Every structure is written in C-alpha cells, then in structure tokens.
Amino acid sequence: MSLPDHKTKIVCTIGPASRSREVLVRMIRAGMNVARLNLSHGTFDEHRENIRNVRAAAEDIGLPITILLDLPGPKIRIGDLAEEPMELRKGETVTLTPAPVQGDPSRIPVDFEQFPQLVSGGSTIFLSDGFLQLRVDEIAGTDVRATVVIGGPLLSRKGMSLVGGGGILAVSAVTDRDLECIEFGLAEGLDTFSISFIERAEDILKAREYAARSGKSIRVIAKIERQEALANLDEILRESDGVMIARGDLGVQTPIEEVPAVQKRIIQKANILGRPAITATQMLMSMTDNIRPTRAEVTDVANAILDGTDAVMLSEETSIGKYPVETVAMMAKIARSTEEKRASVGAGCGPLDYFRHGKGREMITVNDVVSLNVIEALDALGIRFVLTPTRSGSTPRNISRFKPEAWILAFTRNPSTLKFLAFSYGVCPFLIRSEKEYWHGAILDSIRNLGLIGPGERVVLTEGVSPGREGTDSLIILTVD
Ligand SMILES: Nc1ncnc2c1ncn2[C@@H]1O[C@H](COP(=O)(O)OP(=O)(O)OP(=O)(O)O)[C@@H](O)[C@H]1O
Ligand SMILES: CC(=O)C(=O)O
Ligand SMILES: [K+]
Ligand SMILES: [Mg+2]
User: Fold this and answer.
1) Catalytic residue among 9, 26, 75, 223
2) What is the three-class DSSP state of 147?
3) What's the pLDDT tens digit per position in 423-443?
4) Which atom of ligand 1 is nearest to the CA of 196?
5) Annotated catalytic, 281?
6) Does residue 249 have its Cβ closer than 6 Å to ligand 2?
7) Which ligand is nearest the CA of 158, by number?
8) End-to-end CA distance of the chain, in Å?
9) Are the beta carbons of 24 and 54 closer than 8 angstroms?
10) Are 30 and 332 in contact (CB under 8 A)?
11) Any idea where the Pyruvate kinase barrel domain is (predicted)?
12) Is residue 75 a contact partner of residue 87, using CB atoms and an 8 Å limit?
C-alpha cells in the first residue's frame, strides 16, 4: 500500500452535488477522509441513503471513511423555497412568516413559531451567514414585513441571525431535535456527532448521557460558533473529543475581524490537549462556481495548516458546488505543499514550547513526556514512521499534535477509535483483529507485509508496559530486519 501524499485531513459536506456513489469514490481518491452530513438540511431518508452511498464508496476503494453527523442545534432557519436560488433585490419588500408556506419572493417561511416576537420595527435580519440583510418595517399579526437592504441569492433552510446575537434560541444548545438526530445516528451505527452552537461543557454531557441511556458511547466535536463558547472554551475542550472552528456562524455571532485570532487561539488550545481541530467554512468558497480558487482562499487553507489545524472542511464547495472532486484535489494539493514547508516558514512543532519551557511543564503527564520523547527521537534520527498500538487513540493524537513530518501508524482493535483517528493530522489507522496483535512483533510484521518499511529502517514504537494501566509509558526504537 502507499500512504497519501498529505497529512492534513479533509472533511467534506455531502449534498446533492456529491451524494452519488460515483462522485464519492472520486472524492475519496482525491483525498476526502470524512463525510459530513449536515442534519440541518435534507430528511432522515435522504441521509440514510447518503450513509449507504458513503459506505459503499469506501468499500469500493478499500479505505475507511468516517461519517460525521452535524446536529442542527438551536439555530433559526428559513423554510423551503419553491424555486432556488431565489433572488432578493435591494429595495424590495418581503414578508417573513412562521406559517409553513413554500417560499417565494414575496413570502419567506421562517422555521420558528415565535419569530415575530423576536423582532420589532427597525430590527436588522441577516440571512445566509450574513450575506443578505433585511430591515424590519412592521409586524402585522404573525407577518413580519421587511425591506431588502443587501440583496442576493437565497437558498432553502439558510440560517438567520438578528442584530445583537439573536437568531439562536434561548434554549439548551442540545435541542430535542438534536437528540432525535443522535438517535437516528446511533440506529445507523454511527457514533460521531458535532454539536452546533455549543455554550458550555454540560451541553456535551447532555448528549453523552442521552446516548448512554441506550448503552452507547459517542464522540463529540464541539462547534465553536458563538460568544458563550469562547468564554467557556477551556471546559468545552476538556469535555470534547474534538473541536470545530465554525467560522460561518462565528463570523456573524462575534466580530468578523476577530475570527483569525480566535481560530489561532482555539487551535493552540486544542493542540495542547490533543483534541483534533477542524477549521471550517468558506475555505475554498469560490470553487462552488469556479474551477480555480482565489489566492486569498489558497492562503487561508495554508495558514490554517500552519496554525496547526488537524483537518480542513468543505461545505458548499462539495455539497452544492459544481466541482466537488476538483475542490478536494485542490485542498490536498495545498496541504501537501504547505506541510513540506512547515519548518522552513517558521511554523514549527505546535505546542512543543508550551511543554518544554512554558506553562505545560508544571502539569506535564507521563503521556506528554512520551509524546515529547517520540518527537525528539524522530527529529534526531530522521525516522519516517511511529507505530502506536492504541485502544482509545490518545497516544497517536498526543504525537499528532506536534505535527511531525513522520507518519503515525496507529493500530487498534476498536473500530470507533479507528474511525475517530480520521480527524487527526498525519495519523493512518489500521484495524487489528486480536489482542495479541497489539504486541510489537505482530505490528512490525504487518508493516513489513504492507511494504511500507524495508529492512534496515529504524522506527519508533510506543508501548504501555505497566499492566492494567491506561496509556503509553515507554517508547522503543527498533530497526526493521
Ligand atoms: N444535505 C443537503 N441538501 C441540500 N443542500 C445542502 C445539504 N447540505 C448542505 N447543503 C447546502 O450547502 C450549504 C453549506 O453547507 P453547511 O453545512 O455549511 O450549511 P449551513 O446552512 O451554513 O449550516 P451550518 O451552520 O450548520 O454549517 C447549506 O447552506 C445548503 O445550502
Ligand atoms: C460549519 C458551521 O456550522 C459554520 O461555519 O457555521
Ligand atoms: K448544523
Ligand atoms: Mg454554523
């Protein structure tokens, strides 16, 4: 086998443009690692078919593809439009109504009954991540009449937000609908969910406890897209399995000019804790319609990688865009080129200084020390592969956070661990079938059989030597015979 030529993971939102098995196969070949299904759009039946197609495509290629279910969360959205895109023109009057009508240019349904109570004359309404803007003129019964201030094309089920942070319901971030979606996912054999508009760590606990009632354990990615989540970032990160910088809503809910610094801060903190970070939204947005991205977009993807993101995400580009496969290929190409230059442009090894010389020294754990020693050994000896037997995935994640040039080959018996490692930079996971395959002799054999490493090559292998203890507490350097 051969490994991909880039280490950054690619998450693709699946929609009408990409849900066929044929397109999915081409996207996997181009570098997709994770298929994201946004449950804010489409029906359960449609997503069931998406899941079937992703699994079939993954089987066609023989690579594990992870499915991420993105929960709707407490976001107010417009309903369905009769024809889309529907053009809203500056100066026109539109009526917004909570009635379940099919939208047309004069009447737009809003998927929230109390919507008319949330606005008053003079309120500003942003639609579609803030691309369109309306000003409320008057409220007549349940009809909200507004004038288009900034026009443009509108699609079904686009989000809405109101000036002053409105547009998110004042209920728990994990809504009843989200719990139904978790139930749907579990019934489909999936266990990885992203929570939208998370506020605090308890939101994650609520989702976990709900799954635990049916005896299931889930992996939770916290989507950071509102002010409250930034205020509670540390506790959210600790409770989460991974984090997404959801720049679409974040750029409406918080000052847009703060997004770049917030992105860097979230990635740094996630790296320190060994939580995979996904940078999302508008990364190659112009490729929704064009075969080539803008220079600014290419630079954005590269900078997210230099910031230390584990994964980059595509939304419109792959769900409704004209060039889903070409966009993934472009992402992969930018990743490969940027990763090669990480050290030479001074981006270095992520949180290394934090543990060696900074605050991290005070609370360093045995697992941290092992991962630091692995990095030391890789650098000093120019080693190309780290082999990590793992149950929870924490050992490969702790090494991955330093974004080494070497590949991290992870061996696990746990299919859920394998699937979740799809989010971690530079980790290639393998499923092993029995307890005795955790033994290092067996791992070396399987690597030799894959043809990845030839005789005479040195590798690093991590081990847990203390019986019954979780985690890894030693590393050995072996020469393949
Ligand atoms: N399953 C789908 N069916 C139809 N259109 C979809 C689907 N998934 C995504 N889209 C389209 O792609 C756009 C971008 O996807 P994205 O997942 O970023 O959604 P979003 O509406 O911005 O919501 P969120 O904030 O949850 O990401 C959506 O707004 C929608 O127009
Ligand atoms: C991905 C997402 O939810 C956002 O960017 O808002
Ligand atoms: K969502
Ligand atoms: Mg969002």
Assistant:
1) 223
2) strand
3) 999 999 999 998 888 888 899
4) 26
5) yes
6) yes
7) 1
8) 19
9) yes
10) yes
11) 6-328
12) no
